[in-house]
Amino acid sequence: MDRLAGATTAVxxxxxxxxxxxxxxxxxxxxxxxxxxxxxxxxxLLSAVRDSVEEIAGFLRAEMSSAGIVxxxxxLGGTPDxxxxxxxxEAFDVxxxxxxxLAGVLRDxxxxxxxxxxxxRWARIPAGAVPxxxxxxxxxxxxxxxxHVLPGLPRExxxxxxxxxxxxxxxxxxxxxxxxxxxxxxxxxxxxxATRRHPAVTVGSYPSFLDxxxxxxxxxxxxxxxxxxxxxxxxxxxxxxxxxx
Length: 245
Known about the structure:
This protein is α/β, with parallel strands linked by helices. The longest helix is centred in the last third of the chain and has 19 residues, at 225-243. The protein has nine helices and eleven strands.
């Protein structure tokens, strides 16, 4: 697959009744958000839907035209509630079709365990999609347009994602972090002014409450190294003066 040009934003969709109900923690979304950020993609939405063709398709129709890439995890097994392939096909208005060569590989691989026909179901993917090999498991993922579909098992998902990483890579996002012994309320005006002065930089603040008193971690991020440097210089100088360091 060629590198996906122009992708700067990403959304992540996790599929599964067990995720939506809270029975299983959504660790895939957190891992993907961090990893996509490392690749230079701004993650603007993490979401989860049930094992429903309509809900999967509805989410994709709403998000895939405005996001640089969409990553979907979960629902790729062969049980009745594994409906991600059908949901993606519905979103693109295409049928699911078996890729004969892939089905043959899966039958050969899993046939000795008596699972040949069961595994061959995984070869039915949306028409026009490109399959992605699953290096640690069975069910392959696939890419259709800017939608990248990966399995739900974390170990398999992570291994498969890394085979796509170079294709998804954008401009590196730089980050600066510093902790200040104060509360958010005492520095909010500085953070607001930083946001106005430096629109290319994301300004975040994360409070904590220690035995020694309140503390705020201020985080600045940007893919524009020059803009980040200017913002860091202004924020550091202004907060040092404000807090009296």
